[in-house]
Amino acid sequence: MGVQEEDAATGQIAAEAARVYEKCFVPALFGQFAPWLVEAAGIRGGGRVLDVATGTGIVARAALHRGASVTAVDINEGMLTVARELAPQVSFQRAPAESLPFEDDAFDAVTCQFALMFFADRVQALRDMARVCHPGGHVAVSVFDTWENSPGYRDLIPLLSEVMGAQAAEALKAPFCLGGPGVLEGLLEDAGLGGAQMIHKTGQVRHASLDAWLDTEIGGWTLASLATPEIMATLKAAAAEPLGQYRNSDGTISFEAPAIFAVAQV
């Protein structure tokens, strides 16, 4: 696997792609889930919150909006560059989820939105989230349902395989790998967080057009470095038939985004 493919598989993106992510992906998909996760974690004003793998700071900003004192970490400097610009009140640090640079019991709640699938050691990451969370506090994580159960992606991924190859398709499958029955529960139990409350939430993916969906999906995520203008033109030309079913009468695109929230009390 080359450097670009490795970056795609592990969720690494450059600052340019992070800006596309914030401008396009956050309103199209991720932004709506952040207040739900903050609510599920029981975050209130005055609480100390750690957001792990914060990306561009979506959940961190939602926790800040509720009056919490927020710290956030990410391993990706490109994401942190954008996050710091958008929320200077948050203490952003570069750190891996598996080795959080904080004392035990330092936070009242720990959140992690749609990032657990990218960690090198998921169980260790969950253990460290529990370690830094105050007894009685909550660790709240969210993952997507399987790609086969996710409208839009169950048709986009096979198309991507045809146009960009199997490695690109596997990279796009990565965000959905923890959605299978019992997968997330098993990780939590192995990390000492058994008995977590499991909450199923369904958001909506919305894009201005089919081309905008593809530009966002590829340009604002881990595949940005793999897609040449020629590849994007080929992908858009091939997309009309398999993806046209998600086009509304006004040309916009929308489909459901099923997700699973797990809230564990420490």
Describe, in plain words, how this protein is organized in 3D.
The protein is of the alpha/beta class. It has helices at residues 3-10, 15-28, 33-40, 58-65, 77-86, 122-131, 153-164, 166-173, 183-190, 210-219, 229-243, and strands spanning 48-52, 69-74, 91-94, 107-113, 133-144, 197-207, 253-265. The chain has one domain (3-265): Vaccinia Virus protein VP39 (Rossmann fold), CATH 3.40.50. It contains 11 helices and 7 strands. Strand 4, helix 6 (122-131) and strand 5 form a beta-alpha-beta unit. 47% of the residues are buried. GO terms for molecular function: S-adenosylmethionine-dependent methyltransferase activity. Pfam families: Methyltransf_11. InterPro entries: Methyltransf_11, Methyltransf_Superfamily, SAM-dependent_MTases_sf.
Give a brief description.
By secondary structure, the chain is of the alpha/beta class. It has a single domain (3-265), classed as Vaccinia Virus protein VP39 (Rossmann fold, 3-Layer(aba) Sandwich). The chain has 11 helices and 7 strands.
Low-confidence stretches: 1-10
Provide the CATH architecture: 3-Layer(aba) Sandwich
Residue share in β-strands: 15-25%
Give the biggest sheet: 7 strands, mixed
Q: Give the helix/strand class.
A: alpha/beta
Strand order of the largest sheet: 3-2-1-4-5-7-6
Our count of helices gives 11
Mean pLDDT: 91
- In the CATH scheme, the class would be Alpha Beta
Q: Give the total of beta strands.
A: 7
The CA-CA distance between the termini, in Å, is: 39 Å
SSE order: HHHEHEHEEHEHHHEHHE
Number of domains: 1
- Could you name the CATH topology? Rossmann fold
Q: What is the 3D shape?
A: globular
Query: Looking at the chains present, what oligomeric state does this protein adopt?
Result: single chain
Pfam families: Methyltransf_11
Domain Methyltransferase type: 50-140
InterPro entries: Methyltransf_11, Methyltransf_Superfamily, SAM-dependent_MTases_sf
Organism: Alloyangia pacifica
